[in-house]
Write a structure and sequence with these properties.
By secondary structure, the chain is mostly beta strands. About 5% of the residues lie in helices and about 55% in strands. The radius of gyration is 25 Å and the shape is globular.
Length: about 700
C-alpha cells in the first residue's frame, strides 16, 4: 500500500533506535514512592488527564470538555461494564449495536470506532471488561490532532491499572438477584528496596445469568503488567491482556407503531434453542513501552501495541422492515425472524513515538509535543444472512427452531488499513493568566479491500490536515475560561469494509466550536464545569439524487449543546458526581430517506434532548457510607425516520458501603422503584433493549 511503503522504513528505524517498543507515556510515570492520602484515594474529583493533551497538564488548562470517571466512582457504584461507567457522562447515548460490542453516541454522533486503551486505538468490536481499568476518560469533540481519524463527537479512553510501589493483593466477588456470579482479583509486587521493578496482574471470572430470557455471560479476563527502571532516565513497561467473552446475543424487541412492543422486559425474540444465538469474542494484546529522559527539557517515549481479535457471532433477530408483522389464522400477531452468521478476525499493530519538549521561546513557556503514529490493521470478515426463517408470536411465548447457518453469503473479504500520522502540539503560557493551545496533524490513511465474492480489489488513499486551537484565561487559581476550535475527519469505511459505493468519496469532516468554564471550589475539593458548543459535520455520505444506487457527499449534521458537571467533595462527609446535557441535534441536509421518510430535518438516533445524572455518597462513620443516585434520559428515536420513540425515564439506585482496611462490602439496589424503561436501541433500525428490573447486588473485596 502507498502509505505503508512510505512509513515502514521509518517505523523500523524508530524501533531500532529505541531498542524496544513501548507503552503510552502516561503509563510509564510510575513514581518511586506512592503517596495516597485518604482524600486522594476516595475523591470523586479528577485534577488532570493525559488523554486530552498527552502531556502533564491540569484539566483547568485544557480548552476542551474532558470527563473523567475515576476509580472511586467506578468502585462505589459497582460498575462492571462500559455502559455502567458511561451513564455518568453527560451527552452520551447508549446503543445496543449488533449485540456484540460496546457502542455509544457522543453529542449526537456515533462513536463506534472511537475507543482507546492508554491512548492507543482499540476499535475492535467487543465488550470490554473493567477488571483492568483504573479510570475512564472521555474527550468531547474532535481530537484528531493526537488521535487521527474518527472522534466526531468525542472519544473514550480506558486507562489501565499499572504496577505501583504500594501494591495491593485483593480478591473480590459479586452476586445479584438476577443471577450474576463474578469474581475478580488484583495482585501486585514491587522491589521496595531497589525501587527498580514492579509487577501487577488483574483478572476476572464470570458465569452469570441476566434478566433477559435465557441470558448469560461467560467471561474470563487476565492482564499481567511489569515495570522496570533500567536506569535513572530509562523506564520500560510491558503488559498483555486476554479477554474471552461469550454471551447470548440479544437485539432486544421490535417496535409496533411508534413505540416498542408492549411485552415483558425479559421476553426474547430469537431462536428456540438459545445455544444457537451467541456472540463469542476473544481479544489478545501485547503492549511494550519505553520512556527515556534525554535531559531536563526533552523526554522521548515510544509505544507499540499488537492485538488479535476473533469474533464468532450467530444471531436470530426480529425483522425491521415495514412488512415485519403478519397476522396468523388464529388472529395472533406474528413477527418475522431473520438469521445471521458473522465470523471476523483482526490483527493489528500501532506504534507511537513522541518527543516532549519544555522550552522558553520569545519570553514564553512552551510545552511542546512532537509525535508520529504508524499502524496497520488487517480485518477478515465473512457474513451470511437469511430473512424470514421463522414467524413467532409477538405477545405470547412461541419461539421455534431456526437453521443455524444462514443460506446466503453476503460478504467475504479482507480489509487492510495503513495509518501514518505526524503531529505537533504546543501549550503556551502567554502570560500568567493566559494560555494558548495550538496543534496540527497530517494523516495518510490507506485502505484496501479484497472482495472474495466478486473478485474486486478496491483501494483508496486519503491525506488530511487536522488543526486545533484554543485560548484559556485564568484570572485566579479558582476560575478558568476557554474558547476552542477543532476539526476531525472520518474516511469512508473507517470501521467497516470499503465498497464501490464509497470508494471515490472524500472523508467527512467535523468542526467543533466550544466556549466553556472550569471552577475549582471549596479549596479545590470540588470541580464544576460548563460548556456551550456547536458541532458541524459536513461532506456526509447521502444518496445521489441522480442515481439512488450511488452516494455523494452532500449531507450535513449539526449539534448545538450545553453540558455541565460537578465532581468532588461538598463537605467532609459528602461526595458528589453529577452531570447535565442539553443537545439540539439535527440532520440539516440530506438526500437520503429512511422507510420513505426524508432524513433532512430529523433528529439523530439515540440522542436525548436532555439527560442528567447524579450520584451522592455520605459518610456515616469511619466504616459506613450510604450512596444514592439517579439517571434521567429524555426520549430518543430508534431510526432516522423519527417514528419509533423510546420514552423518557428516570432510574434511581442506592448503595450501603462498608470499608475496613482489610476488606470492604457493598449492598446495592439498582432501579429502586422497578421502573420499566428502554435502555438502548440498535441505532439504525427499530430494535430496542429494555432496561433491567429492580436488582439487589452484594459485593465484597478482601485484601491480603
Amino acid at each position: 500500500m502507498v502509505a505503508f511503503s512510505r512509513i515502514r522504513p521509518a517505523s523500523l528505524s524508530v524501533l531500532g533506535m529505541l531498542v524496544a517498543p513501548a507503552l503510552q507515556a502516561e503509563t510509564l510515570a510510575i513514581p518511586a514512592t506512592s503517596v495516597n492520602s485518604s482524600y486522594e484515594e476516595q475523591s470523586y474529583k479528577a485534577s488532570e488527564s493525559k488523554t486530552a493533551l498527552k502531556i502533564d497538564a491540569p484539566l483547568r488548562d485544557i480548552p476542551q470538555t474532558v470527563n473523567v470517571v475515576p476509580q472511586s466512582v467506578i468502585k462505589d457504584q459497582g460498575a462492571q461494564s462500559m455502559e455502567d461507567v458511561l451513564k455518568n457522562v453527560p451527552g452520551i447515548g447508549l446503543s445496543n449495536g449488533d449485540g456484540q460490542r460496546d457502542q455509544v453516541t457522543i453529542r449526537g454522533f456515533s462513536a463506534i470506532g472511537d475507543m482507546y486503551v492508554d491512548g492507543l486505538r482499540d476499535d475492535a468490536l467487543y465488550y470490554r471488561d473493567l477488571s483492568n481499568v483504573e479510570r475512564v476518560e472521555v474527550i468531547k469533540g474532535p481530537a484528531a490532532v493526537l488521535y487521527g481519524r474518527g472522534s466526531s463527537g468525542g472519544l473514550i479512553n480506558n486507562v489501565s491499572k499499572k504496577p505501583t510501589f504500594s501494591p495491593v493483593q485483593e480478591v473480590g466477588a459479586s452476586f445479584d438477584s438476577e443471577g450474576k456470579r463474578r469474581t475478580q482479583f488484583d495482585a501486585g509486587w514491587a522491589d521496595q528496596q531497589q525501587g527498580d521493578k514492579a509487577f501487577r496482574v488483574t483478572g476476572a471470572l464470570e458465569d452469570s445469568d441476566t434478566f433477559r430470557d435465557d441470558g448469560y455471560i461467560d467471561r474470563k479476563a487476565i492482564a499481567p503488567t511489569a515495570y522496570f527502571k533500567l536506569s535513572d532516565d530509562l523506564d520500560l513497561t510491558v503488559g498483555a491482556t486476554y479477554l474471552y467473552d461469550k454471551r447470548l446475543i440479544d437485539f432486544g424487541i421490535p417496535a409496533l407503531g411508534d413505540r416498542p412492543v408492549d411485552v415483558d422486559r425479559d421476553k426474547r425474540f430469537g431462536a428456540g434453542d438459545p445455544d444457537d444465538d451467541y456472540a463469542r469474542s476473544e481479544v489478545f494484546s501485547f503492549t511494550a513501552g519505553v520512556d527515556y529522559r534525554l535531559n531536563d527539557d526533552f523526554t522521548l517515549s515510544n509505544t507499540s501495541r499488537y492485538y488479535h481479535y476473533d469474533l464468532d457471532r450467530n444471531n436470530t433477530l426480529a425483522d425491521t422492515s415495514p412488512t415485519r408483522f403478519v397476522t396468523a389464522a388464529n388472529g395472533d400477531l406474528l413477527v418475522k425472524l431473520n438469521r445471521g452468521n458473522v465470523q471476523r478476525t483482526e490483527d493489528g499493530w500501532f506504534n507511537q513515538t513522541e518527543l516532549k519538549h519544555q522550552a522558553q521561546l520569545a519570553g514564553m513557556n512552551h510545552n511542546l509535543l512532537y509525535g508520529m503514529e504508524l499502524g496497520r490493521q488487517v480485518k477478515d470478515q465473512s457474513v451470511f444472512s437469511q430473512n424470514n426463517v421463522a414467524q413467532v408470536p409477538v405477545f405470547r411465548d412461541g419461539l421455534v427452531d431456526v437453521p443455524f447457518q444462514a443460506n446466503r453469503q453476503t460478504a467475504k473479504g479482507t480489509t487492510t488499513q495503513d495509518t501514518a500520522g505526524f503531529y505537533v502540539q504546543d501549550l503556551i503560557e502567554l502570560a500568567p493568566q493566559w494560555k494558548a493551545l495550538v496543534g496540527v496533524r497530517y494523516d495518510v490513511f490507506d485502505q484496501e479491500y479484497a472482495d472474495d465474492l466478486s473478485g474486486a480489489d478496491l483501494t483508496r488513499t486519503d491525506t488530511t490536515w487536522s488543526p486545533r486551537v484554543g485560548l484559556v484565561f485564568q484570572p485566579d487559581q479558582i476560575q478558568s475560561y476557554y474558547v476552542s476550535v477543532s476539526r476531525s475527519y472520518q474516511p469512508s469505511s473507517e470501521v467497516f469494509a470499503l465498497s464501490t459505493g464509497n470508494q471515490g468519496l472524500e472523508p467527512e469532516e467535523t468542526t467543533n466550536y466550544e466556549i466553556g468554564a472550569k471552577w475549582d471550589l471549596l479549596d479545590s475539593r470540588l470541580a464544576v464545569t460548563a460548556a456551550l458548543f456547536r458541532l458541524e459535520r459536513t461532506n456526509m455520505k447521502t444518496t445521489d439524487p441522480a442515481n439512488p444506487a450511488n452516494l455523494v457527499l452532500s449531507g450535513e449534521q449539526r449539534t448545538d449543546g450545553f453540558e455541565a458537571t460537578v465532581s468532588g467533595q461538598l463537605t467532609d462527609k459528602w461526595q458528589v458526581y453529577g452531570g447535565f446535557a442539553f443537545l439540539d441535534a439535527e440532520i440539516t441536509k440530506s438526500n437520503s430517506s429512511t422507510n420513505g421518510v426524508p432524513n433532512e430535518g430529523q433528529t439523530p438516533t439515540l440522542t436525548p434532548r436532555t439527560s442528567a445524572n447524579l450520584w451522592l455518597v455520605r459518610s456515616l462513620s469511619e466504616t459506613w457510607r450510604v450512596g444514592m443516585g439517579a439517571n434521567y434520559v429524555d426520549e430518543r428515536y430508534t431510526a432516522l425516520d423519527n417514528v419509533v420513540v423510546m420514552p423518557s425515564y428516570t432510574t434511581v439506585d442506592a448503595a450501603l458501603l462498608y470499608n475496613q482496611p482489610k476488606w470492604d462490602m457493598a449492598l446495592r439496589l439498582r432501579n429502586v422503584f422497578d421502573r420499566d424503561y428502554y435502555a438502548s436501541a440498535h441505532g439504525s433500525v427499530d430494535l430496542i433493549t429494555p432496561g433491567a428490573p429492580r436488582t439487589l447486588e452484594l459485593s465484597t473485596n478482601y485484601r491480603f
